[in-house]
Amino acid sequence: MDAANQNHEALDAAARVPSAADLETLSRQLNRPVRDVVEIGARCVCGNPLVATTAPRLSSGIPFPTTYYLTHPVITAAVSRLEAGGVMNEMNAELEQDPALAAEYVQAHEHYLAVRDAIGERSGTGAVPEIAGVSAGGMPTRVKCLHVLVGHSLAAGPGVNPLGDRALEAIAEWWTKDTCRCAGAWDTQAPAPSQDRSRHVKTQAVDPAIKKAERAAARAAREAAANEGSADTKEAPGA
Ligand SMILES: [Zn+2]
User: Fold this and answer.
1) How many domains does the chain have?
2) Which of 32, 96, 156, 188 is most buried, most CB within 10 Å of its CB?
3) What residue numbers bound the domain in which 217 lies?
4) Where is this region: Disordered (predicted)?
């Protein structure tokens, strides 16, 4: 990775902007509503999201080091197969024995941090000192989650994360960047997931969407009570 690629991202600014349709697709891919997604990190040739980008600080205030989340079910399943096959042990052994690879991997870590800072600026969260120098997936010295490395490789483009790139080559029989594998990969017919069923959220404070719905219901009830008996004299808003 040369200096010109220090902050390289696969998608340009316009393509990174998540549309409402993108967010719905992400929810369908993950089978839960997505939260705190600020950009799309990578897209299929058809345009569908492959990677969700999360700001370094969640709207709840919690620091969040894992910027890129692989969402495409075909890719996540293929990477899980690699992990189950023991690829991470091989990579860790190689990192210990190959100084050139280890150095490239450190550069990947630096790239990850630099781009995360840029995403923090763009999304308005700014600097997050709690996670300064902390990347994800085991970087800079170990491989602990191939999904993180593949998400980084897809979002950065080739030549930035050597082990993410290698994992992508290894799943070529199931997915390549040149071919759309979206058809049938997630449910496009059922209503999009609207209630978060993921475990990590259940342990947190009440979902903001639920709070908002509760406030709206309470407001409607107050208005209904206030209007009772005065329906004849009620005026249109702004009259
Ligand atoms: Zn596609």
Assistant:
1) 2
2) 156
3) 202-231
4) 217-239
Are 157 and 227 part of one and the same domain?
Answer: no
Do 222 and 150 lie in a common domain?
no
Q: How far apart are CA 37 and CA 115, in angstroms?
A: 15
Q: Are residues 114 and 220 in the same domain?
A: no
**Ligand 1 geometric centre to CA of 92 (Å):** 32
Distance 162 CA to ligand 1 centre (A): 24
Q: Is there a single domain that holds both residue 117 and residue 219? A: no
Ligand 1 centroid, distance to 198 Cα (angstroms): 25
Report if residue 236 sits inside a domain.
no
- Cα of 158 from ligand 1 centre, angstroms: 19
Q: Does residue 166 belong to any structural domain of this protein? A: yes
7 alpha carbon – ligand 1 mean position (Å): 26
Q: What is the pLDDT of residue 7?
A: 80
How much distance in Å is there from the Cα of 85 to the middle of ligand 1?
26
What pLDDT, on the 0 to 100 scale, is given for residue 10? 93
Ligand 1 center to residue 45 CA distance, Å? 6
**Residues in the chain, pLDDT under 70:** 1-6, 195-239
